[in-house]
């Protein structure tokens, strides 16, 4: 039988059957050929195939052209429309909807903005989205793989066979709408690289849900919109200037805050029931979660993510995470996420060499490989990569009402020679070591977040003296709202770890932070990094016997809460966890049965209450007008005293004695005569201290001929910090 003009070429049929065809959409489905409408389908396992319109009109019997399951027929139809097939073999019959009879979901404006790198709704377009399209329910898939010869969606429904659902290539974006597939469908992408090699199956970079590790497939998420009940919180948030608002952050690793009795993870809902009320009762303003983006390896703590758009399946589904955020907001708590745009792991199912080329990373290992973490570094200069990461930040704020992102490892992004020796890095176009592309990316993402989400904020974990980290982008800054003050953490912990008799020689470790305290908007962090890798818990860093260790830690925490800057404390340190933190077990909550540990917890709750209720302690946290030294040079006694001030608020005196020697009648100059009430005394019996102090208040008397107009004699308990609030007569 001679081949008719409308029939497919054998070579193209073989290419489809072998999975080598680079443009299946131009061949499969419904096409006008030589003046006829022709229908072509590849349905493995089918012996016969009959075609119908969606409305049920029969289109005829399909002619088998290849024993692997390729069929073809000339059909009587007037226009392109979706097609379904009835397939049969000896085992039975089944219905197949033809993905290649549907038009594209992405439109020309998507093509334009994606090509320009300026699309700010990529999370609505890329990845897997369940939808109704051209009259039928299914899922649209889209993925960026510009150098691939072929990309297919694979999963259990097509026996992980990459020949069966190849995608349409739109200028490097591959897409396909597959009817019937919906919520819970497990899928990956099979990619044929530019050299014709089939790559290891890839998870979806834009997947909103993923399988529980060690499985690595992506999951089609439930498209049902979440019903938020946090409108009041969001409206109030939009009016906040966080520089002049209390910010006390409880840093939490969700997998080890608490565990179920059998040792397994708590769910997002259980955390909403237990963590949220605990943090609210403790007086924190924000919860900060170590990364919850999907990641394969528990000991990475989430800092090596493979699924930046997917809340980890360890604790439940995305709706569960939304319920956790919603519960936090209803309790008055903001939620900050640790975010990792600096680098990504090289797991074969992830972003590394995604389409067979260095797509998300640099090809040159001097730019694209991170020696500290054995990870790949994002190519921030590539517009598609910048858009991927910028959209990811916006996604968390929009979809999950996140209040802030704390950006991890910013220093590693800013410096081309970070952790590299000479010759191991590539200078920028001016010959310098600044990563100008990373700077541009950070400025872009920060500007977009502040533009789109009033009251939201961005925090940089930046460990160098890069200028203007928290300066606005229009002034040439990076545009963050806040910067972690790593110097404060290192200097003060070094001082506190010394034997008290030696502290007089290192007094400047406690005062140096005030030299630069207002050069940025700072968060003072006592983070997870200080209680891992052999560093021990905060309590174990303190010198002396058990009593002195607790007294030192109480004095230190109050020193920090009285110091200018926002506050952050890692979980467990609020009750003086003794063991070094491990992600593999829960905190030692039984310690709260001991008075000294319960006393520490009470102190942190009271510090939060004082901080939130006294405007002098927060209203000028980031401005020099809010701070004034009273005693900064008493090295001999290791005593420090300063005032915290705010407009239209009574001042607060903070005074610390970092020796175990009590000091009676210690003279402290003050700005006002009158009664100064003891608001915090870390030696109080309520905190399991020695219960010495000033009987609730001191009286400052007017003096003449001195720099300050008043003076008080104060009793300084050993290893203690006091907050004294001026009380007008």
From TrEMBL:
Active site annotation, chain numbering: 408, 461
Known catalytic reactions: Transfers a segment of a (1->4)-alpha-D-glucan chain to a primary hydroxy group in a similar glucan chain
E.C. number: 2.4.1.18
Domain of life where this protein originates: Bacteria
Ranges where the Glycosyl hydrolase family 13 catalytic domain occurs: 251-597
Gene3D superfamilies documented for this protein: Glycosidases, Golgi alpha-mannosidase II, Immunoglobulins
Pathway: Glycan biosynthesis; glycogen biosynthesis
Keyword annotations from UniProtKB, A to Z: Carbohydrate metabolism, Glycogen biosynthesis, Glycogen metabolism, Glycosyltransferase, Transferase
Listed PANTHER family: 1,4-ALPHA-GLUCAN-BRANCHING ENZYME
Protein name (record): 1,4-alpha-glucan branching enzyme GlgB
Species whose genome carries this gene: Devosia subaequoris
């Amino acid at each position: 039988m001679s081949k008719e003009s409308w029939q497919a070429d054998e070579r193209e049929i073989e290419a489809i059957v072998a999975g080598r065809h680079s443009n299946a959409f131009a061949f499969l489905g419904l096409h006008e050929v030589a003046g006829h409408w022709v229908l072509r389908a590849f349905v493995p396992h089918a012996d016969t195939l009959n075609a119908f319109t969606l409305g049920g009109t029969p289109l005829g019997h399909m002619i088998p052209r290849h024993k692997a399951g390729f069929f073809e027929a000339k059909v009587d139809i007037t226009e392109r429309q979706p097609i379904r097939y009835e397939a049969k073999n000896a085992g039975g019959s089944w219905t197949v909807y033809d993905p290649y009879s549907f038009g594209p979901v992405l439109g020309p404006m998507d093509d334009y903005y994606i090509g320009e790198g300026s699309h700010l709704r990529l999370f609505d377009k890329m990845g897997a989205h369940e939808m109704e399209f051209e009259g039928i329910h299914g899922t649209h898939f889209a993925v960026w793989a510009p150098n691939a010869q072929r990309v297919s969606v694979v999963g259990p429904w097509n026996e992980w066979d990459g020949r069966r659902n190849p995608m349409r290539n739109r200028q490097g974006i591959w897409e396909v709408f597959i009817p019937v597939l919906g919520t819970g469908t497990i899928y990956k992408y099979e990619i044929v690289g530019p050299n014709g090699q089939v790559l290891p199956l890839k998870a979806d970079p834009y997947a909103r849900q993923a399988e529980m590790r060690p499985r690595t497939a992506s999951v089609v998420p439930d498209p049902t919109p979440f019903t938020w009940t946090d409108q009041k919180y969001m409206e109030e948030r939009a009016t906040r200037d966080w520089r002049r608002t209390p910010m006390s952050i409880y840093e939490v690793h969700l997998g080890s805050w608490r565990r179920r009795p059998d040792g397994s993870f708590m769910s997002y809902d259980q955390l909403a029931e237990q963590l949220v009320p605990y943090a609210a009762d403790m007086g924190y303003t924000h919860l900060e979660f170590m990364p919850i983006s999907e990641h394969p390896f528990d000991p990475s703590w989430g800092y090596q993510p493979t699924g930046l758009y997917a809340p980890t399946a360890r604790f439940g589904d995305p709706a569960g995470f939304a319920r956790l955020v919603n519960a936090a907001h209803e309790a008055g708590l903001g939620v900050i996420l640790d975010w990792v745009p600096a680098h990504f792991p090289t797991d074969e199912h992830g972003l590394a060499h995604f389409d067979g080329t260095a797509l998300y990373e640099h090809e040159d290992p001097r730019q694209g490989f991170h020696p500290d973490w054995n990870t790949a570094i994002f190519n921030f200069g590539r517009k598609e990569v910048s858009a991927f990461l910028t959209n990811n930040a916006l996604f968390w704020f929009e979809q999950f009402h996140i209040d802030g992102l704390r950006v991890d490892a910013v220093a590693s992004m800013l410096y081309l020679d970070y952790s590299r020796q000479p010759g191991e890095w590539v200078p920028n176009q001016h010959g310098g070591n600044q990563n100008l592309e990373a700077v541009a990316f950070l400025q872009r993402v920060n500007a977009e977040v502040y533009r789109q989400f009033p009251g939201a904020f961005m925090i940089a974990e930046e460990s160098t003296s890069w200028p203007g980290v928290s300066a606005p982008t229009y002034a040439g800054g990076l545009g963050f709202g806040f910067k972690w003050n790593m110097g404060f953490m290192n200097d003060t912990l070094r001082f506190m770890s010394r034997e008290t008799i030696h502290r007089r020689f290192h007094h400047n470790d406690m005062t140096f932070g005030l030299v630069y305290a207002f050069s940025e908007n700072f968060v003072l962090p006592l983070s997870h990094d200080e209680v891992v890798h052999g560093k021990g818990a905060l309590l174990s860093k303190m010198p002396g016997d058990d009593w002195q260790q607790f007294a030192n830690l109480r004095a230190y925490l109050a020193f920090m809460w009285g110091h200018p800057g926002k506050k952050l404390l890692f979980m467990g340190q609020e009750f003086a966890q003794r063991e070094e933190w491990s992600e593999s077990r829960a905190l030692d909550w039984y310690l709260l049965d001991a008075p000294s540990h319960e006393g520490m917890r009470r102190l942190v709750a009271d510090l939060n209450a004082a901080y939130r209720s006294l405007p002098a302690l927060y209203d000028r946290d980031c401005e020099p007008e809010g701070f004034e030294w009273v005693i900064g040079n008493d090295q001999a006694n290791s005593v420090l005293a300063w005032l915290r001030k705010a407009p239209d608020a009574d001042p607060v005196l903070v005074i610390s004695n970092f020796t175990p020697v009590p000091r009676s009648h210690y003279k402290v100059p003050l700005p006002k005569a009158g009664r100064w009430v003891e608001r915090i005394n870390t030696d109080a019996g309520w905190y399991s201290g020695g219960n010495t102090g000033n009987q609730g208040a001191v009286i400052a008397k007017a003096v003449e001929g001195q720099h300050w107009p008043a003076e008080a004699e104060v009793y300084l308990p050993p290893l203690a910090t006091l907050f004294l609030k001026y009380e007008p007569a």
